[in-house]
Structures are given as structure tokens and as C-alpha cells.
Amino acid sequence: MKPDWDKLMDAFADSPTQLVGDVDCTAEGKPLCEQFGVKGYPSIKWGDPSDLQDYQGGRDYAALEMFAKENLKPVCSPANVDLCDDAKKADIQKYQAMAATDLQSAIAAEEKKLEDAEKGFKDKVQELQELYQKLNAEKDETVAAVKASGLGLMKSVQAAAGKETKDEL
User: Fold this and answer.
1) pLDDT tens-digit profile of 102-111?
2) Which of 12, 111, 135, 143 could be a cystine partner for 20, CB 3.0 to 4.6 Å?
3) Known Pfam families for this protein (predicted)?
4) Architecture of 1-73 per CATH?
């Protein structure tokens, strides 16, 4: 994917409204990646810099270029209110009218919901992992017990009896 991404960066390098770039999340860019929730690599984010979204499309040059041409353009935001529908304009005005502390509290409350959802997810995944390990151990014990009970020997006797029957014919 890297060669296609580099080609895309070159194609949009001179754009006054579109930015295609990359960040090394293992080095100096790590704080930025943490801020925007990058957990796996490569990850592609797009949209308003204060509200980046996860890209879910194709990873070849043609798909990336088509997406960039269709989607990387000014969007509804406080800086581009003229691009907003009436409902979004009303939301922006409502948030702009809030006291800074109230807005920060509202943001914190919504971020807490995201953190709680992530924690709940991780907790359930851990429960599933523990259940998987328990079930796998039980299966392994059953397999070992069946083998120890003489299954292999039974199969050998059956095969030998079948061979004797064929030899008699």
C-alpha cells in the first residue's frame, strides 16, 4: 500500500484544499496517533481535522484516488458554515453559544461514553478469551481421555479384521 499512498500524496501535493499525508505512529507522530485513536497500521483517517473518520475503502491507488477526489473537500464545520444544512448550522450555533466550560463538559461526557464502550468491549472480549481457554482445555482433556481409553487400539483391531476378511476372499 505504501507505494500507492506515496503516489496519492504526490498527486495531491499542490492542492490548496486537500491534504494527503502520512504520520509515523512509532516515532515522533505517536502522540498524534494516540490523540486520533489510531490502533493498527496502516490506518487511514479523513475529514475535518477536529473530527477525523476511519477510511473503510479499498487500499489500491485507484480506490484511494477516487475516494480522495470525491470526499477530500471542504465540509460542514465552524470554518465552513455555508456548507452546512440548517440542522448542522443550528448545532454549530448551539455549541458556539455555550460557555467554554459547558462545552468542555459536554465533550468530556461524550468522550466518556466512547471510553465506556471501549472498556465494555474489551471486558467482554476478555471474558470470551477466558471461556475459549476453558473450553479448549476441556476439549483437550476429553481428547486425551478418549485416546487413553484405547481408541487407537480399537481402530487398529478393526483395520486388521478388515484386512483378514479381504485376504480370505
Assistant:
1) 999 999 999 9
2) 12
3) Thioredoxin (PF00085)
4) 3-Layer(aba) Sandwich (3.40)
pTM: 0.57
* DSSP per-residue letters across the chain: -HHHHHHHHHHTTT-SS-------TTTTTHHHHHHTT--SSS--EES-TTS-EE--S--SHHHHHHHHHHH-S--SSGGGGGGS-HHHHHHHHHHHHS-HHHHHHHHHHHHHHHHHHHHHHHHHHHHHHHHHHHHHHHHHHHHHHHHHTTHHHHHHHHHHHHHHHHHH-
CB atoms within 10 A of CB 64: 21
pLDDT, tens only, 17-69: 888 988 888 888 888 888 888 887 788 888 877 788 889 999 999 999 999 98
CB atoms within 10 A of CB 38: 19
The one-letter amino acid at 84: C
Residues 6+ apart with CB under 8 A from 44: 54, 55
Hey, where are the domains in the chain? 1-73, 116-165
